[in-house]
Prior knowledge:
homodimer, alpha+beta, D-amino Acid Aminotransferase, Chain A, domain 1, D-amino Acid Aminotransferase, Chain A, domain 2, 2 domains, six-stranded antiparallel sheet, five-stranded mixed sheet
Amino acid sequence: MKVFLNGEFIEEGAAALPVTDRGFTLGDGVFDTMLAADGSLVDADAHFNRLLKHAAVLKIPVNMDVEALKKTAHRLIGQPASQRAAIRTTVSRGPGERGLTPPESPQQTILMRVSPASDPSTSPPPHLVIAETVRRNEHSPLSRIKSLNYGDNILALMEARGKGTDDAIILNTAGKAACATAANIFVLIGGELFTPPVSDGAMPGITRQKLLPKAIEKSLGIEDMMEADSIYLTSSILGIRAAKSLNGRKLLDLYRNFPIAA
Amino acid sequence: MKVFLNGEFIEEGAAALPVTDRGFTLGDGVFDTMLAADGSLVDADAHFNRLLKHAAVLKIPVNMDVEALKKTAHRLIGQPASQRAAIRTTVSRGPGERGLTPPESPQQTILMRVSPASDPSTSPPPHLVIAETVRRNEHSPLSRIKSLNYGDNILALMEARGKGTDDAIILNTAGKAACATAANIFVLIGGELFTPPVSDGAMPGITRQKLLPKAIEKSLGIEDMMEADSIYLTSSILGIRAAKSLNGRKLLDLYRNFPIAA
C-alpha cells in the first residue's frame, strides 16, 4: 500500500521520516482522520478545512490547499482497499534543531495514509468508565484542535482497558465531561440530548458539528453522566455509537427511535 | 554525525523513522536531555533512571538498561563534537496501527542524538512573560514526566517570542506557576528561595532535584511571581539561569551572592 509523503506516493515500507521531525520529537503538529466509504470521501471539505485551520493555530504553514488534499486522498483510496477506509492526514512542522524554538522557515511534513476501517456496527457496543488517571486540559488551545499530543487520551484508554472496559470518558480539570478518548460524546437525559461545549474541552468534531442542531451544549458533571439514559460516542470513523454501560451502570440504546438517527 | 537508532549507529541523514511510529502519530513516548561537558556525561545515572521510570508511566517497555544507555551515550560523544553537547534520548512505543490502542507487543523506538550546546552564560539573561494562551495540566500524569507532548510548551514559547521576550512562565489550571517552557523555576522572594511542587505541574527536573534542599516547595500565584526579587530557570542544559525581567518588571540577578550558586 502506498502512502503520500511530502508530495510523493511511496510504498509505506519505504516511507521514512527524519529523526529530527518535530512531530516525533515534540508533538508539534496536527492531524485529521476521515472516512472513505465505497470509494467516496465523506465530508472531505469540512475535514481538510479544519485540518488547515488547526495547523494555523500552531502557525504551521501547509503548502497544499483543500483541493490538492482531496485529490491526494482520492488517489490513495483508488488503491485496492476495503469498502470502508480511514484516511489519516498528519501535518507536522517538519525537521528542527534540538529544543523548542520553531525553525524560521519550516519545511512541514505532510503524510496521508489509508487503512481499512471495520464497520463499527459489527462490534459490540462499548462499555465505558470515567477516567480517573487523567483530566483533559480545557485551558489549552490544544483541547480544541486535533494535535499530535494524544498522551492523555492514551493514558485514559489504557486505564479503560485495564479495567476491562472499552473506552473512557475524560473529565476536564473542572470535573466536567469533555469527550471519550477518540470521540465526542452526546448524552441523553430525560429525553433531551446534551453535548459538552468546546469550552469544556470537547474537540470540535465533524460528526459532532453535524449533530449539534439536535442537541443542547451544556456542561455535564459526573452526576449528569451517571443519570444518563444513553451515551453516544461520535466520530468520523465510528459514526454514532451507543455505549452499553458507564462505570458498570447499564445504558439504553435509544438510537433507533430517537431523532438523532441520521 | 552519527545517531543511535534501535541498536545501530547510523549517519543522521540515513536514520529514518517509520511513518507509523506512535511517537510521531500520537506523541506516545518520553525523552531525556542530558549535558555532556568536556567529554563527560553529567548526571547520567539520574537521567537514564528517570527516562526508564517515565517510560514505565506510559507502560512502554525499554530493551536497554541504564548501563547500556550510558555506553551508547559515551560512544556518541566520542565523535568530534563541541566541548558542550546535549544528548537527547527519545523512547517511543514504536510503530502501531491506526488508532490509539497500543500494540500488544510494542517494538519501541530508541533514538539517541548529540548536538552542540552553547554555553548559556554567553547569551543575555532571558526576559520572561507569564503565558496567557495556555495553562499546564497538573491533573495529568504527563505534567510529571518528560513526554513527547510538548504542544502546550511550544504555544507558550511562541507567545513569549511574539511579545518580544525569550521565554514564558506557564501557570497551571489553578493559576499557580508551574515551570518555564523547557525549564523548572526557582523564585527568590524576601531572601527565601521557592519552587513549585510537582503537584502544581512542575516536571521533576534533575537540576531541580539537586537544588531542592536549598529551596521551599510552595505554590506560587501570579502575585508571588510579580513580587519576586529574582527568578531562576533551571535545566540540565541551562544550569541555573537568572531571568532579566517578568512581564516587563525588572528582576535582580542575585546569583553570585546567593547560596544556590553551586
